[in-house]
Fold:
Amino acid sequence: ASQRDGVERPSLHCTSWTNLLLGVALGVDAAWRHSGNIPPLEWICTERGEGVWTNPHNASDKARAYGYGDHVRSVTPRRGRTMTLRELWERRDELGTITVAAQSTYRGPGPNDYRWEHHTVAFVRVAGRDDRLYRVAADGSASAGLYSGTPMDVEVVDGDIATSTGRTRLYRAWTLPRLNPSRCPITLER
Structure:
């Protein structure tokens, strides 16, 4: 929005969204009040408690953050390191109410031309809607270093959509096996 009208507003990008969601869902108030850059989702989902992440490519780039490793469990792909959207959808009964994932996107033209784990998203299961997952993400982007100001995107994932994406999106996922509905009732609004 600030690029359109010059007024800066608070906003979420993909990693701040997934970090905020985990902190709020688990009731860890300080968890999403990170400082500095945000660590990769793998760090957030494997570390336990408060810690400092250091960028392996730039030692001066550090962030105080909270690791949810005590609360989430990895969703192990059937083979390899990643899973397709179809595999994630087929295994939706194994997922908790909230699952966060690092997304890799195919850029082509070669068979291995992916932008690896460049995006993070959340998948939400809603009671009574067992035939679908909801992919909730801060998908807006423009060019390098710019953001579109696009609001959060909710994509309904059913069997047809999960199949049609093929291998264009690959995921590494972590799920919250238990969620206290009185602490975090899940509601999706359009």
User: Anything to note?
Assistant: The beta strands are 35-36, 48-54, 62-68, 73-75, 83-84, 98-106, 114-124, 133-137, 153-157, 169-175. Residues 84 and 166 are 7 Å apart (CA to CA).
